[in-house]
């Protein structure tokens, strides 16, 4: 499968939650390394394996505020003042620690930071954790980093001295260093920094609003416009928010600042209807038609490619009893056609 793909975005996050009954860091450094190495061991070339770095943390409600280490007992999900569900963005965590009296600890040599206040506890990545993961990727010859997602960084900035501290930490390792090396070693492949940008942030109110003009394209090699969905009626991708040609134009305008940046359509995401994707990949005629129609769509709006974010072949919505085993082989056939 690796031969048919430009890169594989490995979602090395969301591996801890309140369902476990205790606190946990959802993107532990050691686990991220193991997961990335596993993809390579299964045949994906190193240069196509991209490790995921979350710009958010998961929040827990402690059972006892005096027991606040990793593995501490909880009563359920927590919530920060401005969080989304049990998610807390890095931009908020930076502010809570710097200005609101929260305690921050780095229990694993700085790799897996945590913060807490009263009964609320959060495990998340900060710029130091992002730097360390990027350094491991570079030192071990892997292809780069994917980010979910850039609007959760301190982009204005409010907490840090410069905008996008998380992205800058990644860039400091992967892109700045790479560019220096490339002046001497032109054969070295430039690492990738994949920046997911969710279109619904344009409709957010107040400080959460994030438009294409807020994106710094010099900090990304690829900008993934999330999310498009499968239009079964016409067998093609379509924007989940409806056609937005002005948004696509504004995204492409970012190339004026970085001519090398790629603007990619991301299709799928958490909650995507697995049965629809299963039907698509399981039918040769649908596979062929989808690719033809989608290439035309990408050309129409001047996108540079398609990111297929079908997260749960066979294991529909993370339940491996729901989907047919044939999803695995059919998905591989679909990618070969692509």
UniProtKB/TrEMBL annotation:
Domain of life: Eukaryota
Keyword terms of this UniProt record: Glycoprotein, Glycosidase, Hydrolase, Signal
Location of the GH18 domain: 1-177, 191-338
One Gene Ontology term, aspect cellular component: extracellular region
PROSITE patterns for the chain: GH18_1, GH18_2
Entry's Gene Ontology BP terms: carbohydrate metabolic process; chitin catabolic process
InterPro entries: Chitinase_insertion_sf (IPR029070), GH (IPR017853), Glyco_hydro18_cat (IPR001223), Glyco_hydro_18_chit_AS (IPR001579), Glycosyl_Hydrlase_18 (IPR050314)
UniProt GO MF annotations: chitin binding; chitinase activity
Any one Pfam family match given in the protein's UniProt record, by short name: Glyco_hydro_18
Family, similarity comment: Belongs to the glycosyl hydrolase 18 family.
Protein name: GH18 domain-containing protein
Upper lineage: Eukaryota, Metazoa, Ecdysozoa, Arthropoda, Chelicerata
């Amino acid at each position: 499968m690796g031969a048919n793909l430009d890169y594989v975005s490995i979602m090395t996050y969301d591996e801890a939650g309140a369902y476990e009954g205790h606190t946990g860091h959802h993107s532990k450094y050691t686990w991220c390394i193991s997961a990335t190495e596993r993809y390579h061991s299964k045949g994906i070339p190193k240069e196509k394996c991209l490790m995921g770095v979350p710009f958010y943390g998961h929040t827990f409600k402690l059972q006892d505020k005096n027991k606040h280490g990793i593995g501490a007992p909880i009563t359920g999900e927590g919530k920060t003042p401005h969080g989304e569900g049990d998610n807390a963005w890095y931009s908020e965590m930076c502010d809570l620690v710097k200005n609101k009296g929260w305690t921050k600890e780095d229990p694993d040599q700085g790799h897996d930071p945590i913060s807490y206040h009263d009964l609320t506890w959060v495990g998340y990545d900060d710029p130091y954790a992002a730097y360390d993961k990027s350094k491991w990727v570079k030192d071990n010859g892997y292809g780069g980093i994917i980010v979910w997602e850039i609007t959760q960084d301190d982009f204005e900035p409010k907490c840090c001295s410069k905008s996008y501290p998380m992205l800058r930490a990644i860039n400091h390792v992967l892109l700045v260093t790479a560019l220096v090396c490339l002046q001497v070693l032109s054969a070295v492949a430039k690492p990738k920094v994949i920046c997911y940008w969710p279109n619904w942030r344009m409709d957010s109110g107040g400080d959460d609003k994030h438009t294409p003009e807020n994106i710094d394209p010099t900090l990304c090699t690829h900008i993934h416009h999330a999310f498009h969905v499968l239009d079964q009626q016409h067998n093609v991708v379509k924007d989940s928010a409806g056609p937005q040609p002005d948004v696509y134009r504004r995204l492409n305008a970012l190339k004026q600042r970085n001519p090398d940046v790629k603007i990619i359509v991301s299709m799928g995401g958490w909650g995507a209807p697995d049965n629809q994707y299963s039907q698509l990949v399981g039918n040769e005629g649908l596979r062929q038609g989808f690719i033809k129609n989608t290439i035309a769509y990408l050309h129409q709006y001047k996108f540079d490619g398609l990111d297929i974010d079908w997260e749960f072949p066979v294991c529909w919505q993370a339940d491996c009893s729901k989907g047919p085993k044939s999803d695995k082989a059919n998905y591989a056939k679909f990618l070969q056609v692509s």
